[in-house]
Structure to design on (396 residues):
């Protein structure tokens, strides 16, 4: 009995190692935070009206008049945000939790000002569970821009996940199982068999596996991340759910933040793989029809992204961010000519914070969409932003 008790104690200690002794007992804190934000956008061209409050190159029109006349005046409060985070003592240790919403409708709510969940997760020791940025992503290379969707050629999505971070410090290692979002493009197969439209769906039976390793140094950091996915599709309302198929998707990403002299820093991101559109910030699909009529199958679509941004602090409360980003998809032979192939994104801004909790600024943006058949479209816009922040801890 004593042997079993001792073994159980050793096992528990290995699985849940005790935290380092704290200098002072941890205290509980709860903060309500967020900001009210207004964006005014003078759009010189035209994008999908459901996405006009931000610049996504994949939503730019490639046919004149596709979404109406050019030159739109847009007001949006969708970037306004509210959240709560708590730090709670637990047996001499800390449990953290966070829930955050904005009002930028997506999916069925695209184009609407409606509540959207951004983060909902908790952390204890090395365990995180809930919804937050994918582990495949580097949150520290998000540039300081006011456009909501931001540069297209970087990994950026929030996922439900279970993450463990067993190593922290100058070297940090994290591994996670994450919800597998996928998108299928039927292409010409829809024309051969109209019954497929509306019936072909993804079949995510397994979660994605994501991992990252970060090395921190005096100049900043370097991160390498990997993603492994099972991509699959099936046909509902069909015998045996056929046609169906599955393949492997994978991705690699290298990112870095480099601190430069004279209050500057460089943000870099390079990523690529097959079937990773679900985690790329904008553009492409994960699976697409490939082959010939009667023998077509679903293929993981190759996708590549890159981003380079420079940020400069002129003085306290006055900053600039400028850079370029791009995404390219290697289309399959059965994707239609109108399928997205390449997207470009560039922006430059000047942001001013005259007093605490107030940010105002102007940002100039350009985007371009190119399709498989060579058709393309551009969008130029200027965004003016005013953001008023708040925190329940400000008066404490």
């Amino acid at each position: 009995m004593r042997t079993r008790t001792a073994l159980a104690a050793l096992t528990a200690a290995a699985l849940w190692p005790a935290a380092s002794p704290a200098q002072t007992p941890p205290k509980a804190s709860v903060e309500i935070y967020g900001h009210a934000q207004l964006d005014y956008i003078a759009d010189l061209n035209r994008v999908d009206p459901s996405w006009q409050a931000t610049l996504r190159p994949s939503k730019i029109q490639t046919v004149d008049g596709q979404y109406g006349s050019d030159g739109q005046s847009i007001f949006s409060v969708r970037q306004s945000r509210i959240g709560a985070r708590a730090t709670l003592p637990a047996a001499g240790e800390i449990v953290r939790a966070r829930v955050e919403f904005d009002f930028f409708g997506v999916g069925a709510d695209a184009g609407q000002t409606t509540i959207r969940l951004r983060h909902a997760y908790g952390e204890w020791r090395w365990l995180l569970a809930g919804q937050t940025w994918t582990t495949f992503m580097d949150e520290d290379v998000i540039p300081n821009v006011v456009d909501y969707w931001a540069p297209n050629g970087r990994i950026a999505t929030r996922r439900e996940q279970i993450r463990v971070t067993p190593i922290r410090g100058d070297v940090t290692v994290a591994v996670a199982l994450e919800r597998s979002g996928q998108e299928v493009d039927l292409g010409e197969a829809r024309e051969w068999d109209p019954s497929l439209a509306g019936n072909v769906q993804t079949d995510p039976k397994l979660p994605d596996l994501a991992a990252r390793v970060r090395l921190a140094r005096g100049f900043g950091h370097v991160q390498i991340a990997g993603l492994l996915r099972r991509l699959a599709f099936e046909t509902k309302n069909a015998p045996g759910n056929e046609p169906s198929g599955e393949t492997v998707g994978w991705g690699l990403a290298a990112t870095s933040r480099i601190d430069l002299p004279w209050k500057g820093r460089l943000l870099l991101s390079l990523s690529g793989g097959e079937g990773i559109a679900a985690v790329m910030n904008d553009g492409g699909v994960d699976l697409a029809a490939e082959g010939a009529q009667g023998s077509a199958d679903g293929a993981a679509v190759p996708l590549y992204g890159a981003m380079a941004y420079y940020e400069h602090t002129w003085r306290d409360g006055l900053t600039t961010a400028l850079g370029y980003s791009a995404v390219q998809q290697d289309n399959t032979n059965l994707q239609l000519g109108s399928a997205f192939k390449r997207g470009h994104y560039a922006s430059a801004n000047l942001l001013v914070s005259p007093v605490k909790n107030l940010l105002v600024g102007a940002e100039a943006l350009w985007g371009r969409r190119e399709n498989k058949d060579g058709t393309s479209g551009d969008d130029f816009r200027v965004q003016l932003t005013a953001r008023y922040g708040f925190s329940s801890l400000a008066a404490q």
Notes: DSSP finds two helices and 21 strands in the chain. The helical segments are 2-15, 189-192.
